[in-house]
């Protein structure tokens, strides 16, 4: 595996492999089984696998956890090697953003719901770095986890709307044995919070089961919220059900429904979701 830090090195490697299929997995590092699922899928599908590790400052707000975001480049390098990554791109912020262009990308309505409502500008920053990385890597396929469902919806919509020559591949959420979604932020949970955190997924399961039985979305959402409030010390940021990937209200024409939640614990904000096909009930 080649580990590189500069855009020029990356450009040279991509040019040498321009006739091969390239699978790309962008990450912020502190790799876990969720990331490894993306890398494994990319390895199966492509001639070359490129992964990036970049804690993108553009997607963190002034009071968010940029400096606290967990980092372990030594472990990440070993895990990437073991997963069969060919090129690991680990740029600095200065390398990625050498100057302020004054040009911004605005997500619009897709960023006004769910995580975007409490993190203004976050998804603008995501698209800023994704645009740059896609232009540099020129991937055949790019791999994203369903756990970050709003991010996935925004990237899918962006790629389709602006004709990026890349296929976005969804990879299902990887979970602990008790159902907790794998996340780099799980390390910030206390022992008690770790026990409580499993109830995010349980609440989503309860909400989806209630909806499938009753076709009553407000009742399903209320059921999920009540479960989190009764079984955790966390503060609910949101628990909602929206059409996917448009992230609008569910209508008769909706084909997929996203049940999603975010909960604040003392030192971590956790997200989770379940994506369900809408059926006539």
TrEMBL record:
Catalytic activity: (R)-pantoate + beta-alanine + ATP = (R)-pantothenate + AMP + diphosphate + H(+)
EC number(s) reported in the record: 6.3.2.1
Keyword Nucleotide-binding: yes
Keywords: ATP-binding, Cytoplasm, Ligase, Nucleotide-binding, Pantothenate biosynthesis
InterPro entries reported for this sequence: Pantoate_ligase, Pantoate_ligase_C, Rossmann-like_a/b/a_fold
Location of the protein in the cell: Cytoplasm
Pathway: Cofactor biosynthesis; (R)-pantothenate biosynthesis; (R)-pantothenate from (R)-pantoate and beta-alanine: step 1/1
Residue sites binding beta-alanine per the record: 59
Residue numbers annotated as active site: 35
Record Gene3D superfamilies: HUPs (3.40.50.620), Pantoate-beta-alanine ligase, C-terminal domain (3.30.1300.10)
Positions contributing to ATP binding: 28-35, 145-148, 174, 182-185
Main location: cytoplasm
Record Pfam families: Pantoate_ligase
Function: Catalyzes the condensation of pantoate with beta-alanine in an ATP-dependent reaction via a pantoyl-adenylate intermediate.
Annotated family: Belongs to the pantothenate synthetase family.
HAMAP family xref list: PanC
Name of the protein this chain belongs to: Pantothenate synthetase
